[in-house]
Amino acid sequence: MKLLVAAAAALATLTITGCAGITVTQLWRDPDFVSRPGTRVFIIAAMDNSANPAQFENAMAQALRARGFEATTNLGNFPPGRINGMAIRRYAAENQVDLILMTRLTTEPATPVVVTKTAVVSSGWGAFGSTVAGSQTIVIQGTNVNARVEAFDARTEPNALVWSGQSNTVDVQTAPQSLATTVAADLVAARILVR
């Protein structure tokens, strides 16, 4: 019976999270932006209270570091709470940051998934045993997230928007790593980040 319950839970998790990863559509790229080498990126994730922005910031930093860029996060330098734009601009200037990457995340309840678990338990042997069957139906409610990502050239005053993208909606549990990998690749492909 425990094996059946575990299998049903695994199936429910797979159904909720799905198999598809996040995709990001480039909405806009500044046609006047001239690509130039720059390796320092400051990452900010802003989201409602139902999710953890540190997961998104850390995943993005890790994905950029894997591509050879230096990356630091808002929550790694400033306390949680309201984002202080002036302090971030000052930090960017003092630390020669090349790009500020702002991710605005919104969450919403996922479509509920109904899972019915049925278990059949036998006791005894042959005609001397008995069989009992039972089922349980549960509704699992996950959370979806989508992201709007904007890249600002920190070397200009004011910091100029040079690229923006919008993600599809995915399960919040798989989103940080999937979003980070996709955005890092897209920024390099669009030559917003150049080593």
CATH class: Alpha Beta
Number of domains: 1
* CATH homologous superfamily assignment: TolB, N-terminal domain
- Identify the overall geometry: elongated
Notes on the structure:
The longest helix has 16 residues, at 2-17. The chain contains four helices and nine strands. The protein is elongated and about 85 Å long. The chain has a single domain (2-112, 140-189), classed as Rossmann fold. Residues 1-19 have low confidence and may be disordered. It has 195 residues and is of the alpha+beta class. Helix 2 (53-66) crosses helix 4 (175-189). The protein is 28% helix and 37% strand.
What secondary-structure arrangement, pairings included, does this model have?
Blueprint: H1 2-17, E1 24-29, E2 40-47, H2 53-66, E3 70-73, H3 85-94, E4 99-109, E5 113-123, E6 130-140, E7 143-153, E8 160-167, E9 170-171, H4 175-189
Parallel strand pairs: 2-3, 2-4
Antiparallel strand pairs: 1-8, 4-7, 5-6, 7-8, 7-9
Short structural summary:
This protein is elongated. The protein is built from 4 helices and 9 strands.
Keywords, separated by commas or semicolons:
single chain; 195 residues; alpha+beta; Rossmann fold; seven-stranded mixed β-sheet; two-stranded antiparallel ribbon; 9 strands; disordered N terminus
